[in-house]
From TrEMBL:
Belongs to the endophilin family. The keyword Glycoprotein does not apply. Residues 46-277 form the BAR domain. GO terms for cellular component: cytosol; early endosome membrane; glutamatergic synapse; podosome; presynapse. Residues 1-22, 272-337 are annotated as: Disordered. It comes from Ursus maritimus (Polar bear). The keyword Zinc-finger does not apply. Residues 334-374 form the SH3 domain. Keywords: Coiled coil, Cytoplasm, Endocytosis, Endosome, Lipid-binding, Membrane, SH3 domain. It is a peripheral membrane protein. Residues 273-291 have a biased composition (Basic and acidic residues). InterPro entries: AH/BAR_dom_sf, BAR_dom, Endophilin_SH3RF, SH3-like_dom_sf, SH3_domain. This is Endophilin-A2. Its main location: other.
């Protein structure tokens, strides 16, 4: 699309009023807009410092000047706000301006377009929809929505082009030519007024012909400025036509956007109906694999609990080479607490139980927390 300019950088016309004494002094000295720069400067100082009154312009002229000033400010701000409306991201606008400048320097014909938010959203949806795959209802819906968002971005690009050609460019041309020309005429008028007032105060000390020429130039500039302002105000129907073009472009954009969104809504509703009509797949958990915990860690202060060992004719309770001691008790049932001796113990007192390493001891009754029957 054509190059856009950031509203902060648009060289639109400023306020169209007769310049202040300070600005006019700089203008006259630097550019020589007035016929006699010395007389202009002296008269300017006289009015600014001494409070002298200059020639007054008629009320019709002042009223016309005020209307032109308001028109200029309106066009300037509407231009900036329109660009913000079409391209709301200031960072993207700045980047686009830079890229367009680079493209122009390189002689490239096609300039990059503004990254529409609808297009960025559509690309995001399509990317994740593909990742989810065709078996996902959500993934398919994201693909549908993403394609619609990209279509919306294309329609938005068309809106940008239409508004630029039929609204922004004509208003920009108004600022760059008509309003700028009026501003120039008003500055020239103010310079000639100061020159005429200076010479009028020195009537009798300067030739009458010089005073007459100053008056003629002042009246000539006033007529030119008045004519240019009148023409601008009388042809303001052109700005109405341009505003109508903006509204027409917006209407066309919104009609197409509604059509695209209606189609997307129908697709999504159809997917919802199809999904609800399909039988739901029941979740069937896989059978758990048996898990062998192995022999538990021995952490009972040297007296670990042990499960009852398997009894075979060739097995015993000990793994050492000592004589086998057959326990006087039968193997303990699995639901009673038991322990396995870690070493031999010879009783020293009555009531104490002797055992050998590897013997399984069953606890039959607990007397207190430190003593049990076996």
């Amino acid at each position: 699309m054509d190059e856009w300019r950031d509203p902060s950088a648009v060289p639109v016309a400023g306020r169209v009023t007769r310049p202040t004494p300070q600005s006019l002094s700089t203008c006259c000295l630097g550019r020589g807009l007035a016929d006699g720069s010395q007389s202009v400067d002296l008269e300017l100082v006289s009015e600014k410092v001494g409070g002298a009154e200059g020639t007054k312009l008629d009320e019709d002229f002042k009223e016309m000047e005020k209307k032109v000033d308001v028109t200029s400010k309106a066009v300037t701000e509407v231009l900036a706000r329109t660009i913000e409306y079409l391209q709301p991201n200031p960072a993207s606008r700045a980047k686009l301006t830079m890229l367009n400048t680079v493209s122009k320097i390189r002689g490239q014909v096609k300039n990059p377009g503004y990254p529409q938010s609808e297009g960025l959203l559509g690309e995001c949806m399509i990317r994740h929809g593909k990742e989810l795959g065709g078996e996902s209802n959500f993934g398919d819906a994201l693909l549908d929505a993403g394609e619609s968002m990209k279509r919306l971005a294309e329609v938005k690009d068309s809106l940008d082009i239409e508004v630029k050609q039929n609204f922004i460019d004509p208003l920009q041309n108004l600022c760059d030519k008509d309003l700028k020309e009026i501003q120039h005429h008003l500055k020239k008028l103010e310079g000639r007024r100061l020159d005429f007032d200076y010479k009028k105060k020195r009537q009798g000390r300067i030739p009458d012909e010089e005073l007459r020429q100053a008056l003629e130039k002042f009246e000539e500039s006033k007529e030119v400025a008045e004519t240019s302002m009148h023409n601008l105000l009388e042809t303001d129907i052109e700005q109405v036509s341009q505003l109508c073009a903006l509204v027409d472009a917006q209407l066309d954009y919104h009609r197409q956007a509604v059509q695209i969104l209606d189609e997307l809504a129908d697709k999504l509703k159809r997917r919802m109906r199809e999904a609800s009509s399909r039988p739901k797949r029941e979740y069937k958990p896989k059978p758990r694999e048996p898990f062998d915990l192995g022999e538990p860690e021995q952490s009972n202060g040297g007296f670990p609990c042990a499960t009852a060992p398997k009894i075979t004719p060739s097995s015993s309770f000990r793994s050492s080479d000592k004589p086998i001691r057959t326990p006087s008790r039968s193997m303990p049932p699995l639901d009673q607490p038991s322990c396995k001796a870690l070493y031999d113990f010879e009783p020293e007192n009555a009531g104490e139980l002797g055992f050998h390493e590897g013997d399984v001891i069953t606890l039959t009754n607990q007397i207190d927390e430190n003593c049990s029957h076996v």
